[in-house]
Amino acid sequence: MRRDGALSVRQEAIMRLIRSWIIEHGEGPTIRQIGASVGLSSTSSVAYQLAQLEKRGLISRTGRDWSSCQLESPRPPRRGLRSR
């Protein structure tokens, strides 16, 4: 994960792919489909990138497979209660 909180170029490409794939097919792409589209030949590299996106709350999955992933709406930062 980058220190400045921004997504890497590869993570942005993966997010664009997932978004368009879900719109077109109704479910997320497989790890192999993601790898082929973004230029990663190692499925473990793709899984690592997906885990980082899941850790940041940008995607989630309903099952064990990544093809069950869903995009999550970014949540605004939590703010503490202020007293008057």
In a nutshell, what does this entry contain?
The chain has 84 residues and is mostly helical. The protein contains 3 helices and 2 strands; from the N terminus they run H-H-H-E-E.
Question: If helices are DSSP runs of H or I spanning 4 or more residues, what is the number of helices?
Answer: 3
- Overall, the morphology is globular
Measure the end-to-end span.
38 Å
Q: Mean pLDDT, nearest integer?
A: 83
Structural class: mainly alpha
Helix content: 40-55%
Strand content bin: 5-15%
The succession of helices and strands, N to C, reads HHHEE
Tell me about the largest β-sheet. Answer: 2 strands, antiparallel
Number of strands: 2
Low-confidence stretches: none
Task: Please give the radius of gyration in angstroms.
Answer: 15 Å
Strands across the major sheet, in which order? Answer: 1-2
